What we know:
CATH superfamily of the largest domain: P-loop containing nucleotide triphosphate hydrolases
Number of strands: 20
Bound molecules: adenosine-5'-triphosphate, magnesium ion
Order of helices and strands: EEEHEEEHHHEHEHEEHHEEEEEEEEEE
Strand content: 25-35%
CATH topology of the largest domain: Rossmann fold
Distance between the termini: 27 Å
Number of helices: 8
CATH class of the largest domain: Alpha Beta
Radius of gyration: 25 Å
Oligomer: single chain
CATH architecture of the largest domain: 3-Layer(aba) Sandwich
Number of domains: 2
Amino acid sequence: MSKTYDGEHWIVEGLDLTVQRGEFLTLLGPSGSGKTTCLMMLAGFEAPTRGDIRIAEQSVQGIAADKRGIGVVFQNYALFPHMTVGGNLSFPLEVRGMDKSKRRSRVQQALSLVRMSGFEERLPQALSGGQQQRVAIARALVFEPELVLMDEPLGALDRRLREELQFEIRRIHRELGVTIVYVTHDQQEAMVMSDRVAVFSQGRIEQIASPEVLYEEPTRSFVARFIGENNLVKGEISHVKRGVCTVQVEGGSMTAAHLGDLAPGDRTLVAVRPERIQLRPQTGAYANEFIAKVEDVTFLGDHLRVRFNLFGHAQFIAKLPNIVGHGALLPGDEVRLGWAALDCRALNFEDT
Ligand SMILES: Nc1ncnc2c1ncn2[C@@H]1O[C@H](COP(=O)(O)OP(=O)(O)OP(=O)(O)O)[C@@H](O)[C@H]1O
Ligand SMILES: [Mg+2]
C-alpha cells in the first residue's frame, strides 16, 4: 500500500509486508519515516491512498477502527481520566456487550497480567506514568484481540522503567501468543523485543529480518548505520572469491565478506563493526591489518571508545574491552589494528 496526505508527497510508498500470526514485529526507523502512519492504517484511523490491507485474507477496507477487533496502545493514547482503572478496562467489554460478572473477571485477569491487581478503584491521575502505561496495555488486551498495535508505548518513561516494561510486554506476548506490531525509533528496544524488525526509511522498508541478521548481515548501508554502529569505508571491488572480496580503499586494500551481488569494478562501502577490531594483533593473524593513529580515547567503564585516523579516515571507531594493557593508548600513538575478513562486509554503495 501507499499513502499520501496531501496528494503530493508519498509518506509510505509501495509497502508490501506480511505479518505472521503470533509474531512480534517491530517497525523501526527515524522520526518522520512513516511508522505511525502505517500503524494508523492498520488500526483503521487512516485509509491507504493505494493498495489494501487484509487480515486473515479478509480486506479491512471500509471496516471502521472499532470494528476491526484490534487492540491499540499509543504513547499518548490517554486513559479516560474520569473513569477508574476498572472502568477503563471494563469499557471495551461493555461496548462489546459482555455481561457484568464476566467483565469483572476479565478485568481482574488483565490487571494481573500487567501486575496491577488491586488498582481497580484508582483514577488514572493517581497512578505513575509507568502504571498508567501498564493499564493502557491491559486495556488493549482485555477484549482478547488477536492483533495488538503499540506505537512507542514506552517513549515517555525513564530508562529503568522502560526496560522493565519491555520485559513485561515480551512476557505477555509469549503467554498470550498474540500478534504484536510495535513501533519504536529506539534500535535497542527493537532488538530486545522483536522476532523480526522492519527498518524504515522515508516510507520504505530498507530491510526486514531478525535482529541477529540485521546486525550481522545488513544489506544496505542505511541499516548498517542505523542498527548498532559501523565504520563505513568507501572503496572499489577488485576481486571476488568464495564469499570474500578484496576492496581497494584509499591508502590500501581490505578483505571483506561479500554478501550482495557486487562484482569487480563496483563501488562499495566496507562496514567494519567497532567491537570487532583487535588492538595490536599477532602479525599475520588477520586478513586486515593496518597502522592507525589514535585521535582520542573515551573511557566508558566497561569499554574504551577509541577514535583512530586510518589513512585519512579520521572517524574510524574501535570499541576495546576495558582490560589490562589498553590503558596505555594515548592520542598521537601509532598502533596496529586488525580484523578478520568475516568481521567486515562489503555493501552496495549508496551516497551517504
Ligand atoms: N495527518 C497528517 N497530515 C499530513 N501529514 C502527516 C500527517 N501525519 C503524519 N504526516 C507526515 O507524514 C510523515 C510521517 O509521519 P509519521 O508520524 O508516520 O512518522 P513516524 O515514523 O511515526 O515518526 P516519529 O518517530 O517522529 O513518530 C511526516 O513527514 C509527517 O509530517
Ligand atoms: Mg510516530
